[in-house]
Please model this.
Amino acid sequence: MSQLAADELWSIFDARRVKQPELTGFDMAVAGLVGVYKNRLPYLSYLRKQAERIELMEKEVHTLGSNRFKEEVDKIKEIAHLGRFNPGKYQDTPSLERGMALVREAAWRSVGKRPFKVQVMGAMAMAEGYIVEMATGEGKTLTASLTASLWALAGKPVNVITVNDYLVQRDAELMGPVYDMMGLRTGFVVHDTNPMQRIDHYRRDVVYVTSKELVADFLRDQLILGTLRTSAQTAITLLANQAIRQPLMVPGLFKVIVDEADSLLIDEAVTPLIISNSPSEEANAKHYRAAHHLAENLEEGAHFKIDWTVRNCEMLPGGEDKLDELVGNDEGIWKGRRRREELVTQALTARHCYVRGEQYLVGDDGKVQIIDEFTGRIMADRSWRHGLHQAIEVKEEVTVTADKENLARLSFQRFFRQFPIMCGMTGTAWESAGEMWQIYRRPVVRIPTNKPCVREQLPVRFFETTDQKYDAVVERVVDLHKKGVPILIGTRSVLASLEVGKRLQARQTAHRVLNATQTAQEASIIAEAGQHGKITVATNMAGRGTDIILGRGVAELGGLHVISTEPHGSGRVDRQLFGRSARQGDPGSAQLFACKDDDVFVRHAKKLRFLWRAVGAQRLIRMAQNRAERLARFNRKQVLKNDDWMDQAVPF
Model:
């Protein structure tokens, strides 16, 4: 075994920290108070003064010649190597501020951008381990590069996590010159990156990568390590038989910057990433088809009921009797009542609770592809568990894939808790401040906008039926389009985006549709959404990470108008969509259209939705979203308990 591989193995285990288990009783109360204190701390005034001190260095730093600038960077690098740029009480603040002034100058010299004061404030907060909330359009990509540069000077890789492969490559190439001027190497890993390139790029100073790729590579390393879980075990094994003969993919978990932190660390936190293998044939396909045919003979109310809150079906006593009658004297798998009911229940859930174009798509290759509820993006290579995926494949009459054998699994929540140093940024973090502290021990700070936000938030329009709602949306769009106002229409599902598109087409109104089926064109479509007279229909993905710049004369028309056709289960997602307009002091407006048959009301306000006139639209939306968010928090808490148990039982 090479010395390099041995050193890396030690660093891999040394970099992993098992988080403390969930606190209880008095300890939990004290930790909660600490979180409240940190989140309410008058930290902004401190950041503002710090940014002002950094700006005062601008004149002196700007006059440095290239050789002198490099010498100054080398001095700061020596201090960083001593661990003085890590969040904690030993942080060397003067040197950190000096380093930020140098990075700020590097950005100006390399890419022609001098970070605003608010960007410096955001970068310094992240350098101290905060999750920062910065409004859409405030330049989070540049802000992240400032923090990444400071952290990377210490000589260990900094992972910058973003939401898709396009943004990974774009941001790495866009910010690469900044890192190069600071004497740092930039890497990026996307789906098509081959194993040897991954090994190289993961060892660079700043590595841009999606969470899915990083966690998958981490899990593949665990499969190579086998039963090795600690540095002591590894040392003994290496001395005995040199079991590991090549570098692993990921050289340790050291520091991470998470873009769209609320989406990844909260919304998607409980989603496990699973490494599995799949047999070439599905031996149980005939059973899934048989369960589908049985489910066709069952009636809602008499034989089963639907729980829309958790989107599944539950068998009633009448259904159990009906199955006994339908199965008769069949032997084999149908003789056992429990297994039979599990298969039929999944078939019922697939038939009644999962809709093509909302929860999934069927690709051109005939494969069922899951749609991420929060982003509207296709979740490539993901599948539902416990036979649900196969039940949907039978429903759609496509090839039934094999049940997969799980080799390794890890939730994003548990993975990111293993980083000893973490920070993040997003446009909507404040609502999740409590959970950020409870799960990750990360405080949240809201960074003010560079220019005042002048967005006009119009009153909610609420309707009795879906048709009435869509008719009103189209009328509003047509009226604005006549004036030349650019419009971004946000929908919760692919099906809804196609429905809006169909209605606009019927009115002979030109538009572009962006949903989970056009991910390759996402950035270009969204980038044009602010041009005169443009109409863009988009799922919740809405080009997060891509700026919408207003075209000539658009500001005089009131700027970009954003329409949401349905409230989301989380108010944060609605706020993200509305944040697409009125960026950097531009004019803009936003409005929400809703009806009582929208998903959030069907699932979380089943009876109250019929009284929407008496309750009030705004209040009904708030109540339904509060219930949805409480359920989501409960589910995340259960996963957190399981993660804590796993950390103690299998600490890797």
